[in-house]
């Protein structure tokens, strides 16, 4: 598996950021009457200003030479934007009507920026929705309308010490919730681990660890049109009770780990397993874990088979105020081609959002990567509603209370619903 550390997008950092839209009375927000300009035949022309964050912003400038060669009258200008400054920069650009033509946008920000009227709906026929992983495409839809195209993705799987699992009598990964609990218990009692499965006991971003269990159990977060939260359900409560049982039973640490502590604990065998994304392969190996001593597997289903994971990553969107919509969408379309996505994976390590990109090369042969590709077929994004970050922060706090034993799953999700209802979806 490629050992490039993959950028985390729109996750913990975004949770602390607020967004206020203003000065766009003439623009339709999400679900309104805004229409995207259809792309014309022929090659892209003119200047295409692009904002991209993290490693993507650093690498994209050189990568676009192939597009410029194929479109000699187009000039792509890439500005690298730090992730910590990106939310406010995009927010201010929308308010002022002075954004770029194209921008990378964290998946959990799509609802805010689309509802503000700052993004152009995706032109019909630009790409085929079916070409993308379903959860990735879901992140672009706000009020039933797509406002961008998935660029790259990440999802979470089970990492486990295969050597300790073998010592504990396991020659394969667990495939059900009961198996996972027994697996964690055996890693502790027979494999020598102090903690069988590390889970996040609240604090920022814990919703990303908890919600896959809820989705696996059939829970939903909003109604179909995103106008109401539906958090208070038996499935949400059951999943939270199951999640917190790992803390109750001493199978997971009840405090948030310090930076590097997860990797060192996995390396010394005190932590037998954990759930995380593709970037952790390089981190645990850097910490001293031999490739032969650990494995990855899809998240287990409630009863049997593969469960539902979280999908994050980055989407490409065209700003409503662009002066070059045709060139901007043609650039987005180019970045969505399977071979281009595979080339960008080779350059940066971002997992492609287009499923066909996984059919050849390292993505089709590397055993670890194939697990992530399989998990992406059953992965969900949070609802693309303007208020999601506020609701996510509420869920984080209540997961923490439940993990400490201060609230039952039923009481916690009732409070989640109450707080979410007070906030509203913003649609």
UniProtKB/TrEMBL annotation:
Residues 404-427 are annotated as: Disordered. PROSITE patterns: PROKAR_LIPOPROTEIN. InterPro entries: SBP. Keywords: Signal, Transport. Residues 1-23 form the signal peptide. Belongs to the bacterial solute-binding protein 1 family. PANTHER family: MALTOSE-BINDING PERIPLASMIC PROTEIN, MALTOSE_MALTODEXTRIN-BINDING PERIPLASMIC PROTEIN. This is Extracellular solute-binding protein.
